[in-house]
């Protein structure tokens, strides 16, 4: 590619990012009903034909905002799952060490050791389990970035779910739920779909004031504990 063409490609990519950022910021400030191609053209100081050279109307712009949202959500879910998984491993290691010490003392003294119990069921309840952490991170994203979440899951877009055409970042979000279930849990993807459906319902209902947002962590704990039974 010639230097001139490379420069044009960079300028086009910069315009693309500028338009997407302007749409997201306007939606966050005034709601998606305020986002029009005319408003965006004024905001980015380009003509409407320039916008249409990048996107096939508002649906294309909403799709671009949604795709950025999926990238951010995937990273947030991954971070939450990995942190919770690390904590769970540390707790399991500590408990195993405590049990081994208790068993050694019992063998040495012939007396049962108080306070030594069997291992807890991993991920049985609460935010500390990987699944609970992923659910809570999902709800946190939806509550702190409602305009982006609306673009991702409510507004019409060009993005394909559950398809060979599904973008990698969208699949990565779903895979974080799947990763919370053991390999011998059957079927993992069905379990992930049910959990995702549940937390999406929580996000939408709490975001619209239908259920109290303050009880989200309690709802997550209830959901995760029932799945572990």
Structure summarized in a few sentences:
The chain is mainly α. It folds into two domains: 3-55, Orthogonal Bundle (Arc Repressor Mutant, subunit A); 62-94 and 121-228, Tetracycline Repressor, domain 2 (Orthogonal Bundle), CATH 1.10.357. The chain has nine helices and no strands.
Secondary structure blueprint with pairings:
Layout: H1 3-30, H2 37-44, H3 48-54, H4 58-109, H5 130-144, H6 146-153, H7 168-178, H8 188-207, H9 216-228
Helix pairs in contact: 1-2, 1-4, 4-5, 4-6, 4-7, 5-6, 5-8, 5-9, 7-8, 8-9
Descriptive tags:
229 residues, mainly alpha, Arc Repressor Mutant, subunit A, Tetracycline Repressor, domain 2, 2 domains, 71% helix, elongated, AcrR family transcriptional regulator, Homeodomain-like_sf, MT1864/Rv1816-like_C, transcription regulation
CATH architectural grouping of the largest domain: Orthogonal Bundle
Largest sheet: none
State the helix count: 9
Structural class: mainly alpha
What's the count of strands?
0
* Helicity level: over 70%
* Sequence stretches where pLDDT stays below 50 over 5 or more residues: 115-127
- CATH homolog superfamily of the largest domain: Tetracycline Repressor, domain 2
Instruction: Tell me which oligomeric state these chains represent.
Output: single chain
Q: Cα-atom Rg, whole angstroms?
A: 24 Å
Binned strand content: under 5%
First-last Cα distance: 59 Å
């Amino acid at each position: 590619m010639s230097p001139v063409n490379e420069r044009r490609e960079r300028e086009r990519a910069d315009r693309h990012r500028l338009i997407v950022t302007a749409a997201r910021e306007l939606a966050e400030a005034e709601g998606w009903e305020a986002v029009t191609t005319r408003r965006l053209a004024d905001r980015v100081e380009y003509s409407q034909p320039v916008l249409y050279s990048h996107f096939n109307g508002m649906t294309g712009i909403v799709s671009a905002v949604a795709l950025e949202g999926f990238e951010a959500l995937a990273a947030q879910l991954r971070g939450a799952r990995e942190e919770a998984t690390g904590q769970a491993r540390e707790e399991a290691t500590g408990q195993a060490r405590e049990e081994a010490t208790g068993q050694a003392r019992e063998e040495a003294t012939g007396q049962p050791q108080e306070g030594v119990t069997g291992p807890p069921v991993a991920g049985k309840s609460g935010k500390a389990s990987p699944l609970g952490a992923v659910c809570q991170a999902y709800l946190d994203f939806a509550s702190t970035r409602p305009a982006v979440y609306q673009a991702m899951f409510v507004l019409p877009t060009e993005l394909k779910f559950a398809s060979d055409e599904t973008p990698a970042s969208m699949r990565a979000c779903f895979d974080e739920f799947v990763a919370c279930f053991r390999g011998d849990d059957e079927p993992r993807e069905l379990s992930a779909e049910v959990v995702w459906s549940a937390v999406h319902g929580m996000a939408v209902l709490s975001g619209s004031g239908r259920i109290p947002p303050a009880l989200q962590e309690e709802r997550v704990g209830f959901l995760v504990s029932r799945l572990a039974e």
